[in-house]
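Model: You mentioned two targets. I'll fold them one after the other.
Researcher: Yes, keep them separate.
Model: Target one:
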Amino acid sequence: MNLIETITLMISDSYKDRFLAEYKQTKIRYEKLKKLNNQIEAYYRSRNEGLPIKKPFYNGSRELLRQQQQIMGEYLHILEVRAEMEGIEL
């Protein structure tokens, strides 16, 4: 699923649909960030071991990206617990 596929849920009158859209959008963004963080980590690990690997396109703080991923993961967990409590199938 990609972000554009969540539009119908996002504009629904049903709070459960909007909740589902929020969860799916956050999950999509989380997975993309996780992939980038994994690529960055692989690059630096391979560089330390002398292995050739292409550097991912990112010039910011690696620590900040890891922190963002951690917090997004915690937020997803909160949404998952709430979904369970409210009977919303993710």
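Model: Target two:
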Amino acid sequence: SSMQFNTFKINDDATNIVTKSDFASIKKAFGSGLGWGNYDQRMDYNFDYKIDIADITTAAANVNLQ
């Protein structure tokens, strides 16, 4: 079997560092799922079709506070 890997690229710059505004977007989409208006697959790090605590934790671990 093959496994997909999302590099958690939520912004379009060359780095994969999450900014404060990116983190705010993930928090806003928290609790959404596939088919919901505010669901964004780019924010779904673990591909479970919902934005949950695992996705927020991943974003928090990669946030750039500068």
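Researcher: Noted. Anything on target two?
Model: The radius of gyration is 12 Å.
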